[in-house]
Each structure stands twice: as structure tokens, then as C-alpha cells.
DNA sequence: CCAGAGTGGGTGAGCGTTCACTCACCCGTC
DNA sequence: GACGGGTGAGTGAACGCTCACCCACTCTGG
């Protein structure tokens, strides 16, 4: 036996939730994947629901650190480079966490418990947006972003696009995605910065 | 009895899926809500899974019509007004359809069936993006959008933000949303059009 | 004209299966 | 000898689904 059983159980649950879905992730399947008995699950977790809450709390990745780092120290990269990097990370983050987070909608009881535990920790699905909002505000104060910019709207746009990609294009599994991640991220950052309206100086044409 | 049983069953299933979640929507609950026997369900649908597929196909709203209408005839409203209206509709669309669509991730078998039936109909979660992309391209050709604009990125940004709002802020039920829908939609459209970078003419300050 | 067969929509009871969970018991380590 | 960590064999409940049967209505042949 390699890792301690608790870790193996969490890993196995996480993997099953991602692949066969929350509903089909039964105690029997978890036990088989974690190479232990069903009874062993209950030595480590009081109930299946508590096991799931633990998976959500201990296995889902976070986007916060990157955003905090950039806010604290924007570095010498341009805003566009920073936004591109954020978009790249966000695409990965949502691709990994979205399927599991989404499946909570099938079990509203479990979802409520998870929401509560999130609220206690002062976090939730809205915190990446607020983190990016904060970063953009600091760039605005540094004069690297337009003074009139709506930073919350901008944060919603960028992260929304990344999250949407996770579920709008996973049904097309097998086919390649419409655009490589790097290209997609760069296009988002560029478009968000420049806007799409015809420049005023160009209106006469 | 009012409406035909088939309709009552579809309505009841739809309502239950929204409120208590896909997993807790059992045949017994559906029968009770539709005011008929469990056996009656199977007179109208071959299996529970087929019933769900029917609900998804016949009860989920669509965003396509608005987008096609605007593409065919942009009308005399400005691009910003049109984008604001699209964002408003999209927020409602996603708020209604997202919880159910998301819960499919809990049942990957069912999700695959739904994906297949979507593919046959030539539609899916990516079609609103493509529809908006088409609309923006037509505006670009009409010269009302910057020639260099990446219309796909822009479409991803706008609709992504609307979809994200549906799940990033529904765990905060009880509290009011961070921003009224109309205001949010207007801010998104404005930000997307103008961008957030400091204007070139302003770089000297 | 009308007996009677067929049909669409409905039911109550209950089938087999699977689920989350428990219990009595076991074994190596302080 | 207490105890943390593990097991195999269950348990009751809940699930999706089926079965035999029922009723109201429509069609049809003598």
C-alpha cells in the first residue's frame, strides 16, 4: 500500500466524479478504485456527503494565488501579457473544476452544504472575478488602464469567457477545440483591452 | 384534469429538476407532481432517461432566434444598444437553463445522450456564441465595428460573462445580486465596445 | 342499429436491483 | 490489553420499471 487510505479515497472520489459523474460515483465504486472496503470509507468519513464535501474542499484547484500575486506585484510585464497569462490559467482552472462544480446542481442539498462551507471560508465562485477586479483597479490606479474603465465588467468578461469555454466546447470531445488555449487567451486579452468599436478617428470612412 | 398528461409530466419534471435537482427527481416524485401514477409515465416515455431528454429538448429556452433576427436586420439601433439587449436576454437565458444543463455533469451517460441529440439537431451550447459571432461579423462588414475586431473573442467575452453570472452568484441567494441585470448588461456592452486600455492619445499623461 | 373487438390512457401492487450504511469481528502496534 | 485501521456479510430503504388489469371510447360487420 502506498499513500494513506484517506488520501487514496479522496483521490479516487475526485477521479470518479470527474469521469463518470457525481450520481454514478457510488460507495462501492469509490472503494474499488481506492482499493479498500466500503466499510473503510466510514472509518475516515462520517457519510458519503461529508466525503464529497472534503473532496470539494481539498481537491479543487484555486485561482486566487495568481491573482493576488499580480495585484501585489504587477511585475514588468505589460497589462496585455498579464491578462493573457490570467486567461490561460483561468481556462485550465475552469476546465478542471467546472465539471465537478456543475454536477452539484444535480444534488441541491449537497450544493447547499458546499455553498455554506464556502461562505464560511469567505470564498466561492465569485472570488476569482473579485480578485481580477482588484488587480485591474490597481492597474487603473497605476495609470496602465483607462481611467473610465469598468473593472468589474472587464473582470466578468474575461473570466466568463474562460469558464464558458469549459462547458460550451466539451460536448465536442473528440474533435479538436475551436482554438488552441494560448491563442484563445491572447485573443481575449487583446479584444478586452482594445474594444471592438470603430475608432473615433475612423468614423469618416 | 386540465392539460394532457404528457404536458403535465414534462412540466412537473422540468420544475423538479430546477428545484430539487436531477438526482432527487425520481419517478415517484414526478408522478406525484404531475398528479398521475408512476406507471403512467411509462405510457408516454420509454424510460426515465428518455423523459429527461424530452424535457431538455422541449422545455429549455433558446437564444438563437434573437441573434438571427439581429443578424438578418440590425435595425436602426446602435451596436451598443443591440449588444446590451443581447446581454440582457442572455443573462435571463442562462439563469434559466444553466442549473439544469449543469446538472447533466452528474450523469455523464445522460449528458452524452443529450449531447448526441443536440448534435443531430445541429445545435449545442456553442451555438449562441457562433450566432453572436455571425452578428458581429455582419456589423463589421457594415462598418459599425472595427475592421480589426476579433468577433469570436468578442462573442465569447460577452456571452461568457452572462453565463458566468448565472452560477457565480446563485450561491448568494437571499442577498441581492451585485448589480441589477440592466446595469450589468449595459456595462458589459460598453466595456466590450470601448476596451479598457488607456487611449493612445492619452499615453503622454 | 348495435354487440363486441380493439385501442389509448390509466391504475395498484410488487418485482429485482442497487444504494448508503452498520455490525461483529480481526490484527498489528504501543 | 486498548486501540486505530481494516474487513465480509449483511440491512432496510429507495429506486426504475413491469405486470395484470381497468375503463371509456371508436370502429366495424351482421
TrEMBL record, chains A, B:
Recite the lineage of the species.
Answer: Bacteria, Bacillati, Actinomycetota, Actinomycetes, Kitasatosporales
Q: Which SUPFAM superfamilies match?
A: Homeodomain-like, Tetracyclin repressor-like, C-terminal domain
Which species does this protein come from? Streptomyces enissocaesilis
Q: Which residues form the HTH tetR-type domain?
A: 3-63
Feature: DNA-binding region: 26-45
Which segments of the protein form a coiled coil according to its record?
A: none
Concerning Pfam families, the annotation shows:
TetR_N (PF00440)
UniProt entry keywords in alphabetical sequence = DNA-binding, Transcription, Transcription regulation
Q: What name appears for this protein in its UniProt entry?
A: TetR/AcrR family transcriptional regulator
